[in-house]
Amino acid sequence: MRVKSLLFLLGISLIWGSQFFFVDKVIESVQPVSLAAIKAIVGAVTLALIYGLMSKKSQEQQTTPRPKKNLGILFLTIALFEAVFPFFLIGWGQQRVSSSIASIIMGTIPIFTLLILFILRISRLRMLHFLSIGIGFAGILIMILPTLTIDFGNQSLWGMAALIGASLSFALSLVLLEKLPPMSSVLAMRNVLFIASIILIPLSFITENPLSIRLTPFELISLLILGVFHAGIVYMMYNTLIKQSGAAFAALTNYIVPVIGVILGTLLLGDLISGNTWFALIIIMVSLLLGSMASKNKPSAEPQ
User: Fold this and answer.
1) 180 by DSSP, 3-state: which?
2) pLDDT per residue over 142-183, tens digit each?
3) Whole-number Å distance between alpha carbons of 114 and 124
4) Is 211 contained in some domain?
5) Minimal CB count within 10 Å: which of 12, 41, 236, 275?
6) Domain count, the chain
7) In 208-246, where does DSSP find H-type helix?
């Protein structure tokens, strides 16, 4: 089971690490809310089709349990923090910073996850966990401080703030996903993405003009990849990983995400990475390594 979890971890990391490249390719043609809405609906339809193609036996084994009283509220909350807020914030933030910097900032999800687990008293943190959190935030500060001015028109700073917000939102959704009752990962994430679509589609028509979108063939392919893989399939894999190994372990997918994002950004998009940003990446990677070591050495979850 551990080998399976590690394979899922690697697969999720590779998919998410590449999302910043594809977002960069479409964000000039598709505005943030519309991008979020398209990702959510394409992801939801993808998972609905996957469920439809499953055998009847598999469907019977993976049917949704009898709804609990607050299950609908839980799904809505997860949809907001897993798809609505971060989908928009990533698109909006990446209009203002490079894909490489975006991937580095999103690599802080494990740091926020550990902090939330501790604040909510879901897990007991060891000294290595606290060291990981502290070093991780130091890495964020090293990256942000050079752009930190009293100029509220500083778009790069606002972009970074949006991406930090997306990272925090994903971390909250990780903790919430662990609270779902035993059910199919396909159905769970299909429900989450459909709820997100119900919110985002009308919002895109209110705030933007999605019918005016004109895409090149490559942009269209990129948009479909973002919806099918980066919103649909990867969330199914992510939910499965959480059920197998818990939120803290699943958050470690972001251990590899910054590296993949920076490699793709520099090689394929020509992103220019300053020495300060490289140093921040190293600091954040060290913090994630410490968090991984702490979680591996001793289980931190308290009895429920």
Assistant:
1) coil
2) 766 665 554 555 667 788 889 999 989 988 988 888 788 877
3) 9
4) yes
5) 275
6) 1
7) 217-227, 234-245
* 304 occurs within a structural domain: no
Which stretch of DSSP H or E encloses residue 258?
A: helix 257-268
Q: What range defines the domain where residue 247 resides?
A: 2-296
Distance (Å, rounded) from C-alpha 106 to C-alpha 267?
19
**Would you state the structure tokens that stand for residue 52, as one six-digit string?**
């439809």
Give the per-residue pLDDT at 128. 72
Instruction: Give the tokens for residue 299.
Output: 């289980």
302 assigned to some structural domain: no
277, 101 Cβ separation under 8 angstroms: yes
Among residues 161, 81, 167, 178, which one has the least CA distance to residue 120? Answer: 178
- What is the C-alpha separation between 135 and 294, in angstroms, rounded? 14
pLDDT classification of 303: cutoffs 50, 70, 90: very low
Could you tell me if residue 252 is inside a domain? yes
